[in-house]
Amino acid sequence: MAKEHAADATMRSPLGRVRGFGSAHGGTHHWLLQRLTSVALLPLTLWFALSAASLAGAPYEVTRAWIAHPFNAVLLLAAIALAFHHTAAGMQVIIEDYANREWAKVAGIYGIRAICWLLAIASALAVLRIAV
Amino acid sequence: MSIMQDSREATMFGRRTDGTPIRRPLSPHLQVYDMMQLTSALSISGRITGVVWSVGLLVLVWWLVATASGPGAYGTVSWFLSSWLGVLGLFGLTAAAWFHTLNGLRHLAWDAGYGFDIPTTYKTGQAVLIGTAAMTVLTWLIAIVAWAR
């Protein structure tokens, strides 16, 4: 009882004590970044979907020239980073919801994150090779 | 835990944050909620279209890497994407992408505290479906015009 009282009398605020103690071992960082990337991806999606549609059936040189244009290359690089971050974050939530075993959860989350990193680097390298 | 008498008990198996089991409904509780309601159907569709879009990202990576590799690889990806299977896949990806985008807008509004009442939820849900159809048709009109040029 005395021990309990001592714990209650700590100088730390209730918020400070619960921070990081949830099932995700983190606060709002993941949630917030998922929303921020989604907001940033809204105009990028609109731009990319309509641009990609206008490249339908385009010959090699035209597609290459489109990617090489500095405006498109910069937006493509931004879209790649944001899209893979958003995908990894979304897949993490799905795995957390449906994977019951801890090892499957951890392996799934970090496996997908690794794949997303590699694919993001590969596509960014492709854009840079064309644009630079 | 005692031996399960009712198969529905399988959907009542939750865990506390310390890992100890507890009898409580899982969310979404499939025996309680009608998943064919517009609200439930759009909710799970948001998740499914997110997964579909990660497949779309794979196509994007292929397209970019092929274009960087040279005309040969670009020819292969162009051939696949303009085949009937590729066009069908791209059409599905376009619809999934617009759905996920518009449904995401709905989620952002909810996060900001707007549109929680049931009539508004149905209205915005219907707007998402109509918007998805409109944007998919618009995207493909642009693609067909570009193709014919």
From TrEMBL, chain A:
Domain of life: Bacteria
Compartments where located: Membrane
GO molecular function: heme binding; metal ion binding
GO cellular component: membrane
Keywords: Electron transport, Heme, Iron, Membrane, Metal-binding, Transmembrane, Transmembrane helix, Transport, Tricarboxylic acid cycle
UniProt membrane topology term: Multi-pass membrane protein
Pathway: Carbohydrate metabolism; tricarboxylic acid cycle
Main location: membrane
GO BP terms: tricarboxylic acid cycle
Stated role: Membrane-anchoring subunit of succinate dehydrogenase (SDH).
Entry protein name: Succinate dehydrogenase hydrophobic membrane anchor subunit
Chain's gene name: sdhD
From TrEMBL, chain B:
InterPro entries given in the database record: SQR/QFR_C/D (IPR034804), Succ_DH_cyt_bsu_CS (IPR018495), Succ_DH_cytb556 (IPR014314), SuccDH_FuR_B_TM-su (IPR000701)
One Pfam family cited in the UniProt record for this chain: Sdh_cyt
GO molecular function, one term: electron transfer activity
Cofactor binding comment, as recorded: The heme is bound between the two transmembrane subunits.
Location within or outside the cell: Membrane
GO cellular component, one term: membrane
Cofactor(s), by name: heme
Membrane topology according to the record: Multi-pass membrane protein
Top-level taxon in the UniProt lineage: Bacteria
GO BP terms, alphabetized: tricarboxylic acid cycle
Amino acids binding heme: H100
Ranges that cross the membrane: 44-65, 77-99, 127-148
Similarity comment text for this entry: Belongs to the cytochrome b560 family.
Protein task: Membrane-anchoring subunit of succinate dehydrogenase (SDH).
Entry protein name: Succinate dehydrogenase cytochrome b556 subunit
